[in-house]
Amino acid sequence: MTPEFRFYIWPFFLLLLAACNGHSPSSPPASPPPPPALIPLADGFDFPLGPPDGEGYYNAQPFGRNLHLGDDWNGLGGGNTDLGDTIYSIATGKIVFAEDIAGGWGKVIRVLHRTDSASEEAQIEALYAHLDTFWIQPDQLIKRGEALGTVGNAGGIYYAHLHLEIRSAVGLPIGGGYSADTSGYLDPSAFIKKNRPKSD
Ligand SMILES: [Zn+2]
Cα(80) to centroid of ligand 1, in Å? Predict the structure, then answer.
């Protein structure tokens, strides 16, 4: 084959390839993936234990104390008296993570909450840690006051309690639960108190 012949045959070869591709039964037009479930609007926030007001529980280690990035919710009875108590979603939203990551975290749930009816982007994230049991699945939509799981002790390394974080920055790494740098984190109790449901 001369170099000239090779030069001229290339366009025909490519045309043939394109035609075959276009009619191949093995490449049907790709259907678009279903859109992700929209996050329903949070109509207010309640406390995660003893809802709506946290009755029967206290915040043993508030946000900021000892550089804590969350609140530690405990039963008034102390010790492990709250082990297995039901944890309720603080607001309507969407579960984005529910896994046992062991270590100091144990079972962790992360929930996205949309806080502005006008914007899909206005979101905060709640993180619940050290659970004993999950009652939900990732991608599940959840309503305020619906059960998420139960209070645990991260495999026995603490007295049972709920570590709750509320993050203004969505999708941060899991973190360490304590830091002098609080950027992206909110004071959970202050946030909940400021954003109670209007109609309840
Ligand atoms: Zn904690």
Answer: 15
Global pTM value: 0.81
Establish if 94 belongs to a structural domain.
yes
Domain of residue 184 covers: 57-194
Give the Å distance between the CA of 95 and the centre of ligand 1. Answer: 20
Report the CATH number that the domain containing residue 145 is assigned in CATH: 2.70.70.10
Neighbours of ion ligand 1 (CB under 5 A): 72, 163
Structural domain count, the chain: 1
What's the 113 CA to ligand 1 centre distance in angstroms? 21
Distance (angstroms) between ligand 1 centre and the Cα of 61 equals 7
pLDDT bin (cut points 50, 70, 90) of residue 36 is low
Read out DSSP for 54-116?
A: TTTEEESS-TTGGGBSSEEEEETT-TTTTTTPEEE-SSSEEEEEEEE--TTT-EEEEEEEE--
Tell me the pLDDT tens digit for each residue of 42-71: 999 999 999 999 999 999 999 999 999 999
